[in-house]
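Entry type: protein chain
Record version: 2
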Amino acid sequence: MAGMIQEDGSSSVTSPPLQIFSLMSLSPGLGSPYPWLRELKSEERGLCLIHLLLACANHVAAGSIENANIGLEHISHLASPDGDTIQRIAAYFTEALADRMLKGWPGLHKALNSTKISSISEEILVQKLFFQLCPFLKLSYVITNQAIIEAMEGEKMVHIIDLNSFESAQWINLLQSLSARPEGPPHLRITGIHEQKEVLDLMALQLTKEAEKLDIPFQFNPIVSKLENLDFESLRVKTGEALAISSVLQLHTLLAIDDEMVGKSPSASKNTGAVHLQRVLQMNQRTLGEWLEKDLPNVYIPSPDSASASTSSPLSLASSPKMGSFLAALWGLSPKLMVVTEQESNHNCPTLMERVMEALNFYAALFDCLESTLSRASIERQKVEKMLFGEEIKNIIACEGPERKERHEKLEKWVMRLELAGFGRVPLSYQGMLQASRLLVSYGYDGYRMKEENGCLVICWHDRPLFSVSAWRFKRCARCSHILLVMSQSCSLSSSVQSFSGLLDVLFRTCWPQLGIFNTHTNNVLFYGTSKESYFSFRDCLTGDFPSRL
């Protein structure tokens, strides 16, 4: 296949029909595509779809509804949820772009969705299908369970908090492993959190039955709640319990914020420009991932100084009040272990085009995974692509503000965020990595990879990272003043005093929990102290006076 991105980043088309297509694809005067579009070969059709998708997304982002509409019409003649990989992914991306456009007319959007029925049972079913069809969650469960077994060695009372309790297989395997401990099994209590009572009831039944069979003292504490509304008192953490927390694809939902407020800060409004397309995929020839790597047109790509690049600063990590308070509450439970599994992609970019580019790369790999596993006619694959991947794509592209829940971020950001919240990293053990490797080999499909990255596990499709697993423990931070200095150098205090204040609250509670820290801010200067009568300014912290004053 002829490449369409030259070394200098410019777009080139060498095939004659594609050359014509590049000139006419979004011409406003056209009513419908030329007949020869339907007759393109598979690879040429794939390239056309990629170019059209990104050009159409550009028009949607710019508010050019007429041109976007023409682009969607062209794509509709080429995309199909029943076609090859690129046709299927194009179908779901165009649906997401169209949904975003419709939200410009709230009445029309609500009317078209007024009879839509959301079936919780089908959502649970498709999650279980994803668990069965792809090894990603299985690997996460194996690593999590092994880390728990190692951390809880010798403990007589173990309490596990599952932040998304829907798959009993993980904990059944853990029960079986604990029953084989040389010192005997501990008293195990699992707190399961889920929005649906029926899911938790089934989980309790299955786990209780397995525990009785293995003669393990066991309790199940169900909590029907959304994660963002979780009452930490209901967790009933008791003195003497060794606590472990399992979070599988959950924490990113707490990053949802009011994007309009964030957009007003200087860090979110920096000038952005175009840079060369980074080649982030290394996949087998003729996969959708390779098309995306080699043949994407030179559309908007953020510069290193863009708003999304600035999200690596500590202040930007504090922009979600829900996340900050939730991690602070988890830290307050003093867990002996916390294992976090998240998507390894940055779908939390502030601009639409950044999210489209990231999502195309990420979901291209996931669609390729299913392509290698199931036939095109598979009902199970269609359900996973439409009800799981398709809905995630729609949320990433069509939604903004608190409604946008699929705010996936990469491991490097989770590491910084969790360390700032007072957690210390726990390297995954050789035994855990070995078990995961054996599971991957037994799965029998070529293309899945795993690699160790600074003590964490990254699960890939070929060389494309898709999911990360990291382990953490309660740790009292001893370098608060250093973190404050880094924060002050990374961003302007005046840009977001309230966000900065929230992060400082977490840091002070982490380092000096015995003190009742009072804080206020006046004229963009933060004041901290142990009482209203005795306090100091944020500038004092930077001079090094803060630790000595306490």
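Comment: The chain has three domains: 16-119+270-309+349-403, 127-253+321-344+409-474, 480-549.
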